[in-house]
Amino acid sequence: MPNYLWFIIATVALIVGYYTYGKFVEKVFEPNPERKTPAITQADGVDFVTMPKWKLWLIQLLNIAGVGPVFGPIMGALYGPTALLWIVLGSIFAGAVHDYFSGMLSVRYKGANVPQIVGFNLGKLAQQFMRAFAILLLLLVGVVFATAPANLLAKLTPDYLDFAVWLGVIFFYYFVATLVPIDKLIGRIYPLFGALLIIMAVGITVAMFVNMPAEFYNWADWSKNNHPSELPLWPLMFITIACGALSGFHATQSPLMARCLHNEKEGRFVFYGAMIAEGFIGLVWATVGMTFYPDAAALQGVINSGTASAVVYDSSIALMGSVGGIMAILGVIVLPITSGDTAFRAARLTIAEVIKIDQKRPANRLYIAVPVFALGIALSQIDFNIIWRYFGWSNQTLAGIMLWAAAAYLYKRGKFHWICSIPGTFITAACISYILYEPNMGFGMDIGISNIIGAVGAFIILGIFLVKGKSEVAGAPADA
C-alpha cells in the first residue's frame, strides 16, 4: 500500500469521528435548543454578542489554532508515525471532547471562564488554583504566539524590519484587539483569516501529493521510536503535540465563543468541529515533517537551527513556489496572531472575573490590559525554547483538569462520565511522568520510575474521583 494512503485514512477517520463520536458526545451532554444562551440573556455589545455559527466556527478555529498545531506536530514528527495516531485518536476522543465541554459548560454557566467551570465541579480550592494557573498559561500563550510569527515575518521582510520591530507591532495589535468589542474586529476579519488558514492546509497537502507522493512518511518506522536523540516517546510526544490532539489552552478560548452562541445545538459544530479541523492541520504538518525531509536527523537539524518556523519557511517555499509558499507562510503567521490576541482577551476577562470589575466601560478594560501586557512583553525576552517547555506542560495539565471537571459534571448527573474521565486519566499520567522526568524544568528522575509514578498517580486520582466525584459543590448552579 502506498504510504500516502495513510494520510487519506487519517483524514477520513477525523471526519468519521466528527459524525459518529461527536454525535455520541452531544447525546451524552444533551443540549437544549429551547434554553436561552448567555449571548441572549447577558448581551452587552462587547463580549456577549450573537454571531452566526459558521462565523463562530471559523473564529473558534483561529482562536484555538495558534502555532500549536503547526510547531507541535512538526516537533512531534521526530518520534515517527505514532504522532499521526495521537493526532487522530487524540483529536476525536480527547481534544474535541475537551473543547466541546469547555464551551458548553461555559454556556450553561452563563459564559463562565475555565476557573469558574472547574470551581463549580471540583470545588473552591481547585477554582483558586485554576485562576492563577489559567492566567499564567494565557500569558505564556500570548508570548509564544507573538514571538513565533515575529520570527517568520522577519524572514519575509527587509533587514530593518527585524524581529524586535515585528514583535512590537504584534503586541500593539494584541493590545487593541483585546480592548475592542468582539464583533467589531474579531467577528469581521477573522472569518477571512479562517479561509486563508484552510487554503494553506489544503495547499500544502495538494503540493505534497503532486510533488512528492513517493516520499510520504519515507523514514517513518512503526516498529520503533524514530527520535534521533532517542528521547522517550512516552510521555514527551504527548506533551509536545498538544494543539492538534488535546490542548488545555482551548478551554480558555471556548468560553469566548460560548458567549456568542445563539443555540446550544450549535455547540458540536462550533467546538467539537473546530477541534477536528485543527486535528487535520496538525496531521498536515506532521506529514510535512516525515515527508519533506529525508530522515529524522535532517528534520531535527532544521528545527535546531531556527525552531519549527524554519521548517514552515523551507517546506512552504519548496513545495508551493515563492507566491504559494508565502501564502502558506502567511497562513501560519495568522494562526498564532489570531490566538495570541484572544489569549490576552481571555486573560483580561479571567482577571475581571476574579476581581469583579465590569468590562463594559473602556477604562475598566484598560486597568487590567495595561499591566497584563507589561508582564507579557517582559516574558517575551526569555528564550523561546524555555517558554515553550513550560507552555507544553502547563497546557496539558490544564487539559487534564478541565477533563476532570467535565467528568464531574456528568458524574453528578448520572451520565456517562467515562468520555471525559478516561482521557483525563491518560493525560494526567503523561503530565505527572513528564514533570518528574524533564531534566531542565522538572525533577530529572529516571524515565522508568517517572512513568510508574505517573501511571500510579493517575489511577489514584481516578479512584478518588470515583469515590468523591458525585459530591455536590457549594455554590454551583443547580440548573446547569
UniProtKB/TrEMBL annotation:
Gene Ontology CC annotation, any one: plasma membrane
Transmembrane segments: 6-25, 56-77, 83-101, 132-151, 163-182, 189-211, 231-249, 269-293, 317-338, 366-387, 393-411, 418-437, 449-467
Name this polypeptide is given: Carbon starvation protein A
Domain CstA N-terminal: 5-155, 164-286, 317-430
Location of this chain's protein in the cell: Cell membrane
Family membership noted in the UniProt record: Belongs to the peptide transporter carbon starvation (CstA) (TC 2.A.114) family.
Biological process per Gene Ontology, one example term: cellular response to starvation
Membrane topology designation: Multi-pass membrane protein
Alphabetical UniProt keywords: Cell membrane, Membrane, Transmembrane, Transmembrane helix
